[in-house]
Amino acid sequence: MADSTVVSDQQPPGSGQTTPSRGPYIAGITNRNTNLGIRGFMLFSIGVFLALVLNLLQVQRNVTLFPPDVISSIFSSAWWVPPCCGTASAMIGLLYPCIDSRLGEPHKFKREWSSVMRCVAVFVGINHASAKVDFANNVQLSLTLAALSIGLWWTFDRSRSGFGLGVVIALLATLSTQLLVYNGVFQYTSPDFLYIRSWLPCIFFAGVITMGNIGRQLALYECKRMSGKTHQD
């Protein structure tokens, strides 16, 4: 009699009932869509932080000049620069794993956080070199940064989709910067490529590869956690 009243909370295999998927970051309360938002917010925050640090280097060396009335006394940057860079970082970081999934080519090269941190360090070093290292002329600087940027892709990415997206987004970012400078939003000292510096596309390319790697790693972490939860269920 007692055995007939036992109720099990576990559902038998093949019952056709599914539970809502949970996200890995706040596993008890988040679903897939909310988890995507959390991933985007993390990428946005990283982009804002890098923009503040790297733009400070450019402003201190008088590579980038903003009008005095838009400069923040704390960060030495226009207020709109960090949010724009954060938004772009979130879009890039979410786009890379999405493109990998669409192409059916999951990125598996150096998929660990230590490699991602080294990629970030190299990117910061490339940006630092553009502002601090003195070269004989802009051509030498541009060629050096181009080689370093391609080397960053080869060392930490090596995917065709990563290279293609990096080039396309770097060109779009360069065009957008040209338009901003043309309209007097800010300016570069000693421009040698229309209104900007010729090495700027190299910085954009390295930044895209870096944020793409961070986005891929976050997506991989999510997949691993969700796969582990599925096996446990």
UniProtKB/TrEMBL annotation:
List, in alphabetical order, the Gene Ontology terms for molecular function in this entry: lipid binding
Chain spans, region Disordered? 1-26
**Transmembrane intervals:** 36-57, 77-96, 139-156, 163-182, 194-215
Compositionally biased region (Polar residues): 1-21
Q: Does the keyword Membrane apply?
A: yes
Mainly resides where?
endoplasmic reticulum
Q: Name one Pfam family in it.
A: INSIG
Question: What is this entry's stated membrane topology?
Answer: Multi-pass membrane protein
Q: Name one GO cellular component term.
A: SREBP-SCAP-Insig complex
- Example GO BP: SREBP-SCAP complex retention in endoplasmic reticulum
Q: What superkingdom heads the lineage?
A: Eukaryota
Tell me where it resides: Endoplasmic reticulum membrane
Sorted keywords for this record are:
Cholesterol metabolism, Endoplasmic reticulum, Lipid metabolism, Lipid-binding, Membrane, Steroid metabolism, Sterol metabolism, Transmembrane, Transmembrane helix
The record's comment on protein family reads: Belongs to the INSIG family.
The record describes the protein's role as: Mediates feedback control of cholesterol synthesis.
Q: What is this protein called?
A: Insulin-induced gene protein
Q: Which organism is it from?
A: Oncorhynchus tshawytscha
